[in-house]
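In this section we turn from sequence analysis to structure. A common task in structural bioinformatics is to predict how a protein folds when a small molecule is present, because the ligand can shape the pocket around it. The inputs are simple: the amino acid sequence and a SMILES string for the ligand, here NAP. Study the lines below before reading on.
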Amino acid sequence: MYAPNINLSAFGLAIGEALGKFSDHFAIDEKGFVVNCCSLHQKMSAAIAPAGDCFFAAVLTPSHFLPILILALFRKNFSEAMFDTSFTPEDRAYLQKALELAAAGCGYVSPNPMVGAVVVKDGEIVGTGYHRNLGGDHAEVEALREAGHLGRGATLYCTLEPCSHFGKTPPCVNRVIDAGITRMVIGTLDPNPLVNGRGVKILREHDIQVDVGLLAEACYELNAVFFKFITARLPFVTLKLAQSLDGKIAAANGASKWISNEAARRLAHRWRWQHDAVLVGIGTVLADNPQLTVRAEPGPQPRRIIVDTNLRLPLAANVLTDAQVNKTLVAVGEDCGEREKMAEIENRGGRVWPIRTTAAGGLDLRHLLERLAQENIAAVLVEGGRRIFSSLLEAQLVDQLRCFIAPKLLGDGIPAFQGLPIGSLDEAVTLAKIKWEILEDNVLLTGSLRGTE
Ligand SMILES: NC(=O)c1ccc[n+]([C@@H]2O[C@H](COP(=O)([O-])OP(=O)(O)OC[C@H]3O[C@@H](n4cnc5c(N)ncnc54)[C@H](OP(=O)(O)O)[C@@H]3O)[C@@H](O)[C@H]2O)c1
């Protein structure tokens, strides 16, 4: 599968055709759109490589690296020439509105993507919609319903390619065709192997003009979790930590309440309901007895995952005694012998999962994440502590890091990371796409981990 989501100009068309000849694993239509993706290669490694306004949701063989490199270079050097300039400022404004609508689905649609849609007829918005909850109507369907007969001859703006398959709901392309839409503007193709360019192809076969790639980077960013989940079959993993200026996540006596300020903690509660699950190591539970619930504002409660090889978790812990106990999942080693304790946790409504252990003795965190993905957990917020952060980083399972930095020095406290096999500056784990935010006297740094998207 190779799904670069690019809208090529006349200049780009020549490049696109050349690339089409180079590799038979993707197709370029008469307008220069990359519309088709190959899914033949079972042994390929999954990757998503965003590059400016274009992104690649790709499963790569070595033979694909050259076309990707060429596309990336052209993106860098000839971006304006390469991208279709037929999008108008109005197109951009309508798709931007669809993006804003889509974001309202955050926390309610996972593992589905957040999608927004706007129907425009004669310069007026006649319908809007977004995907509100899992199993509910898709954004296009909601927007077309509101537009009613005004949808005939209208333009539909949608952040993601409409689906072409029967899932929890019928294919959206049929609704678009039946509504009489004559043009569709799409942010990104849907990397779901069941769609992946087929939606666009079907619409074009029905003489609907389809333009793909507007605000593609923003559309990708909005659904980075979905893109990772659907292509790699692993959850998108975010590390959240609060550290002092000297890089400590707890004082020397193990206390970490509170390093960050009130504003940071409120934000962290929001992140909890925006994720499917919150994950911590047993060290953090023993030190802090956290609740791991959403309390600062309304929102769905996430699953709570405790990584605990030998089931040291006390039965009196908050995660086993509060009203959300049915959200608690304890991952233990396959050889864990604590049968009675396991039965008690399950009696209370919690769950216990045996997970493979590694040669080093801890749990195989990739195996755990694979199991979580099988349960449709697409977004995991990791809240500590040092050893879990470090193991996940070392196993290259982290997609994003969100770090609150407080203006404090903790001297001999507990460092945020330990034991990473980094011997020189060249080997440093380097974040990309850095964002800074000031929260009163704290700084929030957000960054992506290279090589994981
Ligand atoms: N400021 C912050 O943001 C923040 C956030 C959270 C925690 N903290 C602080 O961090 C400290 C706890 O950190 P910690 O490093 O001691 O404990 P931790 O990372 O929370 O938990 C580590 C434990 O998890 C278990 N484990 C199982 N598989 C593992 C694997 N593959 N990799 C790593 N661990 C695995 C191990 O115990 P078993 O061998 O028994 O399974 C290990 O000792 C506390 O002082 C807490 O207050 C600070």
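The chain has a mean pLDDT of 84. As an exercise, try to locate the residues that line the NAP site and compare them with your own expectations.
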